[in-house]
Prior knowledge:
The structure is a single chain. By secondary structure, the chain is mostly helical. It has one domain (about 1-225): Four Helix Bundle (Hemerythrin (Met), subunit A) (Up-down Bundle), CATH 1.20.120. About 75% of the residues lie in helices and about 0% in strands. It has ten helices and no strands. The longest helix has about 30 residues, at about 195-225.
Amino acid sequence: MHKLSDLLYKNLANAVSILGVLPICIVFREGGYQYLIPLMIYSNVMDDLDGILAGKLNIRSEFGAMMDNVCDAIAHSVFVMVVGMQFGGVCAAASLVGAAAIVWRSVSRLVPGQAAGTGSATNELIRHVLFVLLLAQLFKFNAAPYLIAAFLLHAVSMLLPYKLPYLIRGMTKSALAIGVVNVALLIAWLIPKATPVIAACFIVTYLVSLVTALIQRDKVVSLGAL
């Protein structure tokens, strides 16, 4: 009994990672697309929760880190492709590029010794897709061009070998701050008046971070050429 409880304790964060993925099967049901937004928010909450639990309970492990990356790759690729196929055409093609970048980044982080903290996280793309869908509902515009831009931009930023310094989620370290980020996503969904402000905070800080990272890259290339 003690061994069983010890096993459950050590794998609590891993269980949360798996629970964050399982409900995604709902989107494959008829009419499942209508649940996409709450599923995105749920996935983000569970993805953050597993990391918090692993840190607070001191149960971080190499296996847990790999589990988290695999679950992210599955969930985020499904979200991106489902959204892309919903809009079709160029948006669908761009979503496949985004999904490929998600898989590439996730697999590369399974390699021992791979540098961490570079590029943009895959769930940063999911948050931006979420905001585009919410804003499109609010202001009644065609989301496809903005989704295409998000898919292609993130396909680049996810694979950058440089840190994106000003990402809101990247700067939140404490459990309280991470909780605030997730509450902000809920507010953006449930309170439409707050959606533009919250979306702007995440998207603008991403764009500033991306430009900063690209400038850093150019500086490194220039110095290397000297």
